[in-house]
Amino acid sequence: MIQWWQILLLTLYSAYQICDELTIVSSAGSPVFAGFITGLVMGDLGTGLLIGASLQLTVLGVGTFGGASRIDATSGAVLATAFSVAGGIKPEIAIATIAVPVAGLLTYADILGRMSTTAFAHRIDAAIERFDYKGIERNYLLGALPWALSRALPVFLALKFGGAYVQSIVDYVEQYKWIANGLTLAGRMLPGLGFAILLRYLPVKRHLHYLALGFGLTAMLSVLYGNVQSVGNAVSAMLGTDAFAKLPKEQMVAFTNNFKSVSMIGVAIIGIFLAVQHFKNSQRTVVAAPASNVESGEIEDDEF
């Protein structure tokens, strides 16, 4: 059961996160941050990070241009994490049954929030004509209210009154194992779908060598540290008699479990190095866009 203070904190965070995304842009409105905050409030940080990171990967290649709306994966992460922890739902099932539908439905709340702010925009235009600076500031701040309510109100209603509905879904899923297995598989596939969308819009052809390099490094480092872990398992088995049995349990598994994520850390470090080098090179040489592209309004790959 979700406590009243947890509902209050998550509602306040939902109101803040959209305003942060539109103004401050501190990443507090990202799905992974939403999973972190919700997991912290609900008392299960691991589940929150798993759900938030999965939704973050899902929307990697999704963006907004102009006045376009996109799925609200952040609110989806909040509700999926809250109900997953409170109801004991598997994170993958929570992603497929709660996060994705909520993210899609709240697109309409995003549109409603955008429409509501136009009233304050017209009031700001009128204040500009009157040189009413206080009116400009006041209406600018009031314009944040529709945005905050577009997230806070649906999240509050779902957390307050949606528990019984979510529990009925869980009970139904538990009756049919094949449904649970299918939803688990769908939840695990969503991050891969996000990567596919991202690669579709990135200038992959221009930077294919970087993609090949990243794949090669990941494969080699995974094999390298996988072999190190295998050696650790073999050493542990060889010492499994008297000397090894006397060690504390946490020391017995420390050697074999230290290398599971080292390959990704190595790839990330190399990626940061290449990104810094690319940035420095771009600062030294500024290439002007062709006149034909500028006149026709064509968007270059890097600009897109």
TrEMBL record:
Molecular function via GO: transferase activity
E.C. number(s) listed in UniProt: 2.7.1.69
Name of the protein in question: PTS system transporter subunit IIC
Signal peptide bounds: none
Pfam families: EII-Sor
Gene: agaC
Recorded GO CC terms: plasma membrane
Membrane disposition: Multi-pass membrane protein
Subcellular location: Cell membrane
Entry's Gene Ontology BP terms: phosphoenolpyruvate-dependent sugar phosphotransferase system
Highest taxon of source: Bacteria
Cell membrane is among the record's keywords: yes
Transmembrane intervals: 93-113, 140-159, 179-201, 208-228, 259-276
The entry's keywords: Cell membrane, Membrane, Phosphotransferase system, Sugar transport, Transferase, Transmembrane, Transmembrane helix, Transport
